[in-house]
Amino acid sequence: MTESTPVRDHILKMMTHLNEMEVLGAEIDGETQIDIILQSLPKSFEQFHLNYNMNNRDYSLAELLAELQVVEGLFHQSSQVHIAEKVSASKPKGRKKRKRQTDSTKKVNGP
Fold this sequence. Notes:
- By secondary structure, the chain is mainly α.
- It is built from five helices and no strands.
- It has helices spanning 7-23, 30-39, 46-54, 61-90, 103-109.
- The chain starts with 6 loop residues before the first helix and ends with a helix.
């Protein structure tokens, strides 16, 4: 999975591959399926993977998909906050532009 791929698409594709393997005769238990999927995720999901292992979580594939979508949503919120902070930090503060006099205002107000 690349960082730009939606996690939902990736997990559904992985689930399809796992189902195909079972149809072909492979016997892969649920925990191993989860581990395979977690190993296929990019580094941005490393903290999720660590929490999963440390807290001895037990997800079905559907539950894993839901949890990963929540985490992905948090990534997007976090990146939007960082972008907003960068934009607001790049704006000049306390400076006001002085209006230029046009030819018509010079004639009315004088030199």
